[in-house]
Amino acid sequence: MTDQNRPILEPKTQAFVDALNAQGGKPLYELSYADARRVLEDAQAIEVRKLPADVEDKILPVGPSGEVSVRIYRPKGVKGLLPVVMYFHGGGWILGVIPHKPHLPVHIHSAVGIGDYFNISESNIMNLENILRDPRHSGVTFVMIHGGYPLEREAIWLAAVKNVYIDSSLMEIVMYPSAFKNSLEQWLETFPDKITFGTDAFPYNDALGAEESYWLGVQSSRMALAAALAEMISTGEVTEGKALEMAHAYLHDNASRIYEGKVH
What we know:
There is one protein chain. By secondary structure, this protein is an alpha/beta fold. It has three domains: 11-44, no CATH class; 53-93, no CATH class; 106-258, Metal-dependent hydrolases (TIM Barrel, Alpha-Beta Barrel). The chain has helices at residues 11-23, 33-44, 129-132, 152-155, 171-174, 177-190, 210-234, 240-258, and strands spanning 53-62, 66-75, 106-109, 142-145, 164-167, 195-196. The chain is elongated. It starts with 10 loop residues before the first helix and ends in a 6-residue tail after the last helix. The mean pLDDT is 84.
């Protein structure tokens, strides 16, 4: 580009561009997605004084089946009609996304694997702790599928991270209700609002297809949940009313909050 064709920028913008050039490094389009995101996140991490504002996130229906996420900013406390400035996000859904939870939670298979292609000794769910606690992912909802089995008693403590949930699918199939009851009781005593029911519903073999594993998971979960809550009531840990509330939360309400608008 010749000097004659070079665009003229406003002085502060030109200073910003010059500062970027002075840092060297590859252009964003030559970086991997992850590295490009990191460059932009680091640049946006600079503290900027902002005027107080009311922020509202909405999902608007578009077309026959689409959805668009919209974030609305209004001056703090101001009501009534106001002029509108609309900003349409670019970046190809790769760069510059709003730092809040994605439309869908992130599911991570956290149980030991089956088959020769899994390294069982390295299947410890606690190896994910540094990722789950990474502040760059604080806006992402993580669901630990299969509850970290057979380390489900350690896994529940990861739910102390505000955006981490634990799912019990598979556990009620590979454990008898009497054993699953003990694990479920610990979960209920620790983070009852961060655990969700699941069955796996997987076609394991000719004798145990998806239908059978779904039925078995439901029956085993009901038995284990009833036994766990009955014991907690008998020892005075919870009232019957609280036990019913916890049962609803595990079987439905917690998932309804995670998958907002997707669970009935």
